[in-house]
Amino acid sequence: FDPRHYLGTHCYSLPKTGPHRLRFLLESVKDLRETLKKKGSTLVVRKGKPEDVVHDLITQLGSVIALVFHEEVREIL
User: Does the keyword Hydrolase apply (predicted)?
Assistant: First the structure.
């Protein structure tokens, strides 16, 4: 979870993630973790800036072959 997603927006400082969306995200992650666990896998969940968290995870794991990610599309005004 990137803390920057829970700050206010650039223009009007409106929350990017309100309480209902946050609850949905948390329930979805919990459900995904439970589903993966039933299949013999797991889900790593961290809080922090992705550029820091991913670096730390790669360092901890040691032998990472591939890394897949997506970038948020930002609106140009």
Answer: no
Distance CA 26, CA 64 (A): 27
13-70: pLDDT as tens digits:
777 777 888 899 999 999 999 999 999 999 989 999 988 998 998 899 888 888 887 7
- Strands (E) across 1-77 are located at none
Q: Both tokens of residue 30? A: 């919990």
CATH homologous superfamily of 3-61 equals: HUPs (3.40.50.620)
Q: Who's near 2: CB < 8 A, 6+ residues apart?
A: 48, 49, 50
Nearest to 47 by CA among 25, 74, 15, 62: 25
Spans of all domains in the chain: 3-61
